[in-house]
Specification:
The chain has 8 helices and 4 strands; from the N terminus they run βαααββαααααβ. With 211 residues, the protein is an alpha+beta fold. It has one domain.
Length: 211
């Protein structure tokens, strides 16, 4: 079972219910998508050993044997819906809302697998710091570069990319997985920061999480 952790997302009280609903849905989908990205790459690595194939088998979604073995054989369309992504997350790794502090500012504590929580923590906190810089220009090109840097700097994601490249995957091969399971789900959290629902995030120490 993956290491568990707590993600504490700081935010503001007195916000519209619709904004809170959207924020929780976006956070859950980003978390689930990162877990699925990890699972796909890890499954490919195991399958390359099982089937003695040294190459990246990008017929994954439909006909490749590991797709059927890992439950992807029924998928007929890409990208997956949030519901389809969620269906591939084991019950033991599902995101759980463990505590809420309703104040201004307040916070939300989520219990889940540590790897995706760390990816989300880094993105939200880095973006929060950039937004405090009055000279920072968040152009479309800048946003794209920031996301790419997140991937390269984050151990969880970069290790999986390294595995895929060792199997022969190209940037074009990896693009659907990165775009649909990393970049786009994470970027949907931008609107919650821009609307003032949330600010930054942290992984609290064990003693802090009991406050």
């Amino acid at each position: 079972m993956p290491t568990q952790g707590i993600l504490r997302v700081h935010g503001q009280g007195e916000v519209e219910v619709e904004l809170v609903i959207a924020y929780l849905a976006d956070l859950k989908h980003a978390y689930n998508s990162i877990i699925l990205f990890e699972s796909i790459i890890d499954g490919l690595e195991r399958a390359s050993r099982d089937f003695h194939s040294p190459r990246y088998p990008f017929g994954l979604y439909m006909e490749w044997p590991v797709a059927r073995r890992r439950g992807f054989g029924h998928i007929r369309e890409w990208p997956l819906s949030p519901q389809e992504v969620a269906s591939h997350v084991p019950a033991s790794e599902q995101l759980v809302l463990s505590a809420v502090r309703l104040s201004s500012p307040g916070s939300w504590d989520f219990l889940g697998a540590l790897n995706p929580l760390e990816v989300l923590r880094k993105y939200l906190s880095d973006r929060h710091e950039r937004r405090k810089d009055g000279e920072y220009r968040e152009t479309a090109e800048r946003r794209k570069l920031d996301l790419e840097n997140l991937v390269l700097e984050n151990r969880v994601i970069s290790e999986r990319i390294g595995i895929a490249r060792a199997l022969g995957a190209t940037k074009r091969d990896l693009a659907p997985l990165l775009n649909e399971l990393v970049y786009r789900p994470i970027k949907r959290l931008d609107r919650s920061q821009d609307q003032g629902v949330i600010t930054h995030a942290e992984i609290p120490q064990a003693d802090d999480s009991k406050d």
